[in-house]
C-alpha cells in the first residue's frame, strides 16, 4: 500500500511537470540544442493574427507588417539588468526567414527600430495616424525600409541600414554609421532636388578642444542613391548646403542663440560650401564673446581655435566629389 502511494505520488508529479512545461513552453536543454540545429525557429504561432515565429531563448518585442513581408524584433530571455542580445528577422509569406540581423537591445526598451515615415523624425508619435514603415525611396518601384540600431553608448552610436524589399529578395542598399543618439535623432529623410529619389541627411557631432559633446559642431553628410546603393554625395548638393549656411547665420544674429556648438557649426558650414578661410575668420572674430565661458571651464581659447581650424581643413568642400 505504501509502495502504491509512492508510485501514485510520483505519477502525479510527472503529470504536473508536464502540464507546467506545456503552459510555459519549457524546453529541456537537449530539446533547445536540437532546435538550435534547425535554425532555432518554431513556427507554432506563425500566421496566426499577424504573429511571428518563435525563436528558442528569445522573446518577441515588436512585429512589423511590411507588405508581402513581416518582420520581428526579438530579445534574449531572461534579459540581464542593462542590455541583452537581440535579433531582427524578416519573414516571407511562407514564414521563412529571408533576412536576419544580430542586434543589441535594452533590458527595458528596444534599441532597434524601423523608421516611421508617418512619424515625427522617424519615430511613431502614438497618435491616430497609422505607422508607415515602408516607402519608395529610390524611385524604382520597390518598397524600402530604414533600420536603426543603437549600441547603448553615451552620446553614441547608431547604425542605419537601408533595405530594399523586392518580390524576390531583400537587398541592403545603404549603411550609415556613427550617428549620434537613439534612432533616428541624427537622420533626416528629405527630397533636396526634383527627383524620384529621396536623400538621407546624417548629422554627426565633431568634438574639438572647445568643449564637450553639447558644444560640438554639427557636420552634415548627404547620402544619395546612385543606382545601386546610397553613398556620400554631399558635395553634389551645393544649393542645399548654402541654404543651411544662411539659416545658421540667421540664428547667430539672435544673441540668445550664440553658443559654441552653433559657432563651430557655422565655421564648418562655410568649409562645406568651399569657403574655408571665411569659416576660420568668422570663428576667430566671434570666439572672443565666448571666451569668458571657456575660461570658466578651464578651456584654453588658443587650443579651441587651433583644433577648430584643423576640423575645417578636413571637411570636404562642395564640388570636390563626383557623382
Q: Care to describe what's here?
A:
The protein has 323 residues and is an alpha+beta fold. It contains 7 helices and 14 strands. Helices cover 28% and strands 29% of the residues. The strands form 4 sheets. Strands 3-4-5-6 form a 4-stranded antiparallel beta sheet, with no helix packed on it. β3 and β4 form a beta hairpin. The longest helix is centred in the N-terminal third of the chain and has 23 residues. The N terminus is likely disordered.
Q: What order do the helices and strands come in, and which of them pair?
A:
Elements: H1 2-24, H2 29-36, E1 41-42, E2 54-55, E3 58-66, E4 69-76, E5 83-91, E6 97-106, E7 112-114, E8 143-150, E9 158-165, E10 170-179, E11 187-190, E12 199-206, E13 217-225, E14 230-232, H3 238-252, H4 260-272, H5 276-287, H6 291-296, H7 301-314
Antiparallel strand pairs: 1-2, 3-4, 4-5, 5-6, 7-8, 8-9, 9-10, 11-12, 12-13, 13-14
Helix pairs in contact: 3-4, 4-5, 4-7, 5-7
Unreliable residue runs? 1-49
Strand order of the largest sheet: 3-4-5-6
Tell me about the biggest sheet? 4 strands, antiparallel
Helix residue percentage: 25-40%
Would you tell me the structural class of the helices and strands?
Answer: alpha+beta
Distance between the termini: 90 Å
Shape: globular
Estimate the mean pLDDT confidence. 84
Could you state the order of secondary-structure elements as H and E?
Answer: HHEEEEEEEEEEEEEEHHHHH
Proportion in β-strands = 25-35%
Amino acid at each position: 500500500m505504501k509502495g502504491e502511494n509512492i508510485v501514485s505520488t510520483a505519477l502525479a508529479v510527472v503529470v504536473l511537470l508536464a502540464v507546467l512545461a506545456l503552459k510555459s513552453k519549457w524546453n529541456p536543454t537537449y530539446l533547445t540544442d536540437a532546435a538550435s540545429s534547425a535554425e532555432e525557429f518554431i513556427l507554432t504561432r506563425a500566421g496566426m493574427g499577424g504573429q511571428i515565429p518563435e525563436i528558442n531563448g528569445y522573446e518577441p518585442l515588436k512585429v512589423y507588417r511590411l507588405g508581402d513581408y513581416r518582420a520581428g524584433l526579438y530579445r534574449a530571455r531572461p534579459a540581464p539588468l542593462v542590455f541583452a542580445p537581440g535579433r531582427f528577422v524578416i519573414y516571407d509569406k511562407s514564414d521563412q526567414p529571408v533576412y536576419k540581423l544580430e542586434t543589441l537591445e535594452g533590458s527595458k526598451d528596444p534599441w532597434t527600430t524601423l523608421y516611421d515615415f508617418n512619424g515625427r523624425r522617424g519615430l511613431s508619435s502614438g497618435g491616430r495616424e497609422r505607422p508607415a514603415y515602408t516607402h519608395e525611396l529610390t524611385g524604382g518601384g520597390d518598397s524600402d525600409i530604414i533600420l536603426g540600431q543603437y549600441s547603448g553608448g553615451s552620446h553614441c552610436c547608431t547604425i542605419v541600414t537601408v533595405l530594399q524589399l523586392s518580390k524576390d529578395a531583400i537587398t541592403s542598399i545603404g549603411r550609415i554609421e556613427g550617428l549620434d543618439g537613439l534612432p533616428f535623432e541624427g537622420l533626416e529623410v528629405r527630397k533636396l532636388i526634383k527627383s524620384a529619389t529621396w536623400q538621407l541627411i546624417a548629422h554627426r557631432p565633431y568634438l574639438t578642444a572647445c568643449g564637450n559633446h553639447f558644444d560640438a559642431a554639427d557636420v552634415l553628410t548627404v547620402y544619395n542613391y546612385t543606382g545601386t546603393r546610397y553613398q556620400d554625395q554631399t558635395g553634389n548638393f551645393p544649393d542645399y548646403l548654402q541654404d543651411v549656411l544662411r539659416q545658421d547665420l540667421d540664428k547667430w544674429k539672435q544673441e540668445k542663440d550664440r553658443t559654441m556648438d552653433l559657432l563651430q557649426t557655422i565655421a564648418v558650414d562655410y568649409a562645406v560650401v568651399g569657403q574655408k578661410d571665411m569659416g576660420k575668420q568668422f570663428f576667430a572674430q566671434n570666439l572672443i564673446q565666448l571666451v569668458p565661458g571657456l575660461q570658466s571651464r578651464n578651456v584654453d581659447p588658443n587650443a579651441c581655435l587651433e583644433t577648430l581650424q584643423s576640423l575645417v581643413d578636413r571637411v570636404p568642400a562642395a564640388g570636390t566629389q563626383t557623382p
